[in-house]
Specification:
The protein has 245 residues and is mainly α. It has twelve helices and no strands. The protein has two domains: 1-29 and 158-245, Serine Threonine Protein Phosphatase 5, Tetratricopeptide repeat, CATH 1.25.40.10; 35-157, Alpha Horseshoe (Serine Threonine Protein Phosphatase 5, Tetratricopeptide repeat).
Amino acid sequence: MSGFAWDKNKPLRSAAAIVLGLITLLCAAPAMAAVSESIFPPVQIRSDASPGQSTIATNHVALVEYNSGHQAQAVHLWRSLADQGDADAQFTLAVLYNRGDGAVQKDMVEAARWYRKAAEQGHVLAQYNLGVLYATGTGVARDINAAVQWWRMAALQGHTDAQFNLGLYYAQGNGVKQDPGEAVKWWSMAANKGFAAAQFNLGLMYMKGEGVAENDDEAVRLWHLSANQGFSQAVALLKALNLNP
């Protein structure tokens, strides 16, 4: 949306502040969000796997066993691969322990251990999930600094939830020195990928001129993008400001 004009006698900042009461940064996907459980993405079983592809082939076999109800056999295969250092298998084991699924008992300490092994090899979902465990003190001692560090690694690989959480922590000064500019940077990354909560929060930053030059047009544009995805706070704000989403 461009060319937005607001009544000079009723600045957008003041009007929105009245609508929202006390402006606060909202978190639709909170930093304490549930751990991702997308451990079984669709795969194609390859029958022509060469010896050099044996790890990939074994992961696929384990997946077939799991989906066929042979969970104990699948866990045995994944554990064997994980012990050999395969990051995907380590991540899978971590989520199984996280959920208490696949012939293993729920054990968050063990989940954290396997997440760490995968995360240290650059597995982006493991990095994000390990950050969640540190942020919540689940399976590990609560350590906000560690959470931020792992989320940063995931965010740099393009993980939008990690980018959003970093923005939130920098905006609030939680575990890091408060830095609106950093909040804007990380929220911009997530917003550009269509993350509705990041679009809404980034709009607030433009409205208030925090971490970025004040720009009412950009604020409204971002709120519309967020509202178009059904983000309730953006819908409510636009309606209250008579800017129908």
